[in-house]
Automatic annotation (TrEMBL):
Keyword terms of this UniProt record: Kinase, Transferase
Species this protein is from: Dyadobacter beijingensis
Superkingdom in the source lineage: Bacteria
UniProt cross-references to SUPFAM superfamilies, sorted A to Z: Ribokinase-like
Listed name of the protein: Sugar kinase
Matches recorded under InterPro entries: Carboh/pur_kinase_PfkB_CS (IPR002173), PfkB_dom (IPR011611), Ribokinase-like (IPR029056)
Pfam families from the UniProt entry: PfkB
Lineage: Bacteria, Pseudomonadati, Bacteroidota, Cytophagia, Cytophagales
PANTHER family per UniProt: RIBOKINASE, SUGAR KINASE
Coiled coil start-end: none
């Protein structure tokens, strides 16, 4: 099944306890499409970059089977730039700089060849842009999944609520779930958020795993305890890309299959954090992915006599 991803393609500057980078390639849609490339071959991207974005990186996405016909290049514009700093506790980070640049007034054009997509991943970007993408699809996808962040809850809440009403699945972290709902209990927060539109909700808890909510059902997926987390940037997007890539590959959006998808997403995210930026994601093998998934199975399966 085909997957369409929209979201930021960016330059990031990162600082973690392990080191510092100058501008490296990042962005929600970059991580999502790279992670999804290990599952689905019909991997279509809609995003915008400036003339300063390196052609080699676009080639790299193409080499991973990502269709970049929908990647607009604004020659005289600057690519979205984000800078963040992590402390010892890598579950929280400070955003130092967000420069929307070409992303601010992006008009997402959907190439005709992308129409009819069965799976839509609205990665983190301006909520009004996310909504425009839905409106421009001739046929409603089988599953629309959305990721967002605290920035949009703070500066574009009405737009965010209006797109939330149109999506099937929302993925956010625990802090954002509390901000969006005004509830501390994640169970209460989930109820309130699902009443805003999405029938399914994933709340990510960083190194403490992720919760999947649908109706009255809850499933919990652990994160793999790693000896070293080098750089958590993109873990949430990589998780989303692995999750929806797996759903698209299996063409099954049942709750049972979402449980498997969440494990695949978590496995992909566990690779992402092992190196800076997208480094670890660009040359994984199927064997590595399968054996990592098995580690997740071993981590939490037990028998009760
Ligand atoms: P994650 O660590 O999965 O939450 O996502 C990190 C990525 O999100 C980075 O590569 C950033 O370029 C991107 N990002 C950060 N802030 C924003 C924003 N306001 N809109 C879109 N993408 C963003």
């Amino acid at each position: 099944m085909s997957l369409l991803t929209v979201g930021s393609v960016a330059f990031d500057a990162l600082e973690t306890p392990f080191g510092k980078t100058d501008k490296i390639i990042g962005g929600a849609a970059t991580y999502i499409t790279l992670a999804a490339s290990y599952f689905t071959k019909q991997n279509n991207l809609v995003a915008v970059v400036g003339g300063d974005f390196p052609k080699e990186m676009i080639d790299l996405l193409e080499e991973h089977g990502v269709n970049t016909n929908g990647l607009e290049i604004v020659q005289d514009g600057k690519t979205f730039f984000w800078s963040g700093k992590y402390h010892e506790d890598m579950n929280t980070r400070d955003t130092l700089i967000t420069e929307l640049n070409v992303m601010e007034h992006f008009d997402p054009i959907i190439p005709d060849s992308y129409q009819g997509t069965e799976f839509l991943m609205l990665g983190n970007t301006v909520p009004a842009t996310q909504k425009l993408v839905i409106e421009r699809l001739a046929k409603r996808p089988k599953l629309i999944m959305l990721d967002t962040m605290n920035l949009w809850m703070n500066i574009a809440l009405d737009d965010l609520k209006s797109v939330l009403a149109l999506v099937d699945l929302l993925t956010i972290n625990d802090e954002e779930a509390r901000l969006l709902s005004g509830e501390y209990s994640l169970r209460k927060a989930a109820k309130k958020i699902m009443a805003m539109g999405p029938k399914t909700l994933i709340i990510k808890k960083g190194e403490h795993g992720a919760l999947l909510f649908q109706d009255d059902r809850i499933f919990f997926a652990p994160a793999l305890p790693l000896e070293e987390v080098f750089d958590p940037t993109g873990a949430g997007d990589t998780f989303a890309g692995g999750f929806i890539g797996y759903l698209a590959a299996t063409d099954d959006i049942s709750f049972e299959n979402m449980k498997r998808a969440i494990i695949y997403g978590s496995a992909m995210a566990s690779f992402c954090v092992e190196k800076f930026g997208t480094e670890r994601l660009v040359n994984l093998s199927q064997e590595e992915i399968n054996s990592r998934v098995q580690e997740f199975v071993n981590l939490s399966s037990f028998e009760i006599q």
